[in-house]
Amino acid sequence: MIKINNLSEGTHHLEIEEKIDELELKEPFSGNYLVEVKLTKLHNRIILDIDLKTTAFFECDRCGVNYKSNLQNTFQMVYLFGDSPEESNSVNTVYLSSDIDKTKLNKELRDYAILSIPMKKLCSEDCKGLCFRCGKNLNDDSCDCKTQQVDLRWKPLVELKNKMDFN
Description:
The protein is mainly beta. The protein has 2 domains: about 1-115, no CATH class; about 130-165, no CATH class. It has 2 helices and 7 strands, in the order E-E-E-E-E-E-E-H-H. The chain has helices at about 105-115, 155-165; strands at about 1-5, 10-20, 30-40, 45-60, 65-80, 95, 100-105. The chain has a 5-stranded mixed beta sheet with strand order 2-3-4-5-6. Strand 4 (about 45-60) and strand 5 (about 65-80) form a beta hairpin. The radius of gyration is 24 Å and the shape is elongated. The chain starts with a strand and ends with a helix.
């Protein structure tokens, strides 16, 4: 919660650290979240530049190892004083009445924390994954599986794949 009624015009810096439960977030999130806010107050609006940092635990999509990840998301909220127009399609703009003395960011922080979860969860960028034959974690050691001979009809595609270095 940020008090806005007694703030003078200009730029203010705030730092908020609380338990992740305050945002009603469960697994994979854990511990505390940290919010660094650059608040710019003008006579008819407030602009918040927000940097959100959270911690989460994931299972690697390639090798299956559990790992801890520090997530970060940066976004901006604009609060305008006055009545909301009939049609407003901006998600990050909120209209406030002039008698409001504080604003709560929990919903926005929760949404942006969830958006910071990566689509592909990797323990490291160069994770080698598991051997598709024996299941050994190739990050720990190489396996003794024999490579299969490629059908000659597929050889040009295999060479193209190797040149493009797909992971």
